[in-house]
């Protein structure tokens, strides 16, 4: 039946068959982030200052309602949050990126190495650009548990970790044949990205809307790079796998 369908329908059907096992979690995660950010923007348009109130209330709730209070939870939790948040730092992401690119180049997998570099570097540039354009101050209603200096919106940790880990998760899923393994790899990338973003709020260095915006930007960029890489591979413009 499909062979009699219009060529455009067949192309879309084949594309969906290729990406649905590997990229559907990215579609879902990006959609959730986009809708969340759209909701925050909609709320701000309807009620002046509403978004800031939501941000403020959540930050205060994590400090037991007291601006000078300690973070809620057991005493060891802030230390764990600091450890986890470092997974989204520039140093760690750079190390992971260089290690991944180096491995791919030793295997002569030029396409995947280029994809990783574009995704990570492009995501970092976009994040920096938006930070400078928006110039949103960091939260000042609670104590920061880690040192920060640059603008707040969007969260660089959230955006850059999404661009890096989601790209790597999709890349590993692409070369893995098992369906469960594909879901596990991309799902793990999503979980790591979520944890990093949540720690930024818990540590008091970002408004919740900063983190949501970072997730939206990073996941959308990762998906865009994945689709571009897949298109270039199909078009024969990028050769991979030792060729």
Q: Summary?
A:
By secondary structure, the protein is an all-alpha fold. The chain is built from eight helices and no strands.
What's the structural blueprint in terms of helices and strands?
Layout (H helix, E strand, L loop, with lengths): L6 H40 L3 H12 L15 H9 L4 H17 L3 H25 L21 H20 L3 H24 L5 H28 L8
Helix pairs in contact: 1-6, 1-7, 1-8, 3-7, 4-5, 5-6, 5-8, 6-7, 6-8, 7-8
Description of the molecule:
This protein is mostly helical and about 240 residues long. Helices cover about 70% and strands about 0% of the residues. α6 (about 155-175) packs antiparallel against α7 and α7 (about 180-200) packs antiparallel against α8 (about 210-235). About 35% of the residues are buried. The model is unreliable at about 240-243 (pLDDT under 50).
Number of H- or I-type helical stretches: 8
Rg over C-alpha atoms, rounded to the nearest angstrom: 20 Å
Report the oligomer.
single chain
The counted number of beta strands is 0
Give the uncertain stretches in residue-range form: 238-243
Strand content: under 5%
Averaged pLDDT, please?
A: 76
Helix/strand-derived category reads mainly alpha
Largest sheet: none
Termini separation:
36 Å
What portion of residues is helical? over 70%
Shape: elongated
SSE string = HHHHHHHH
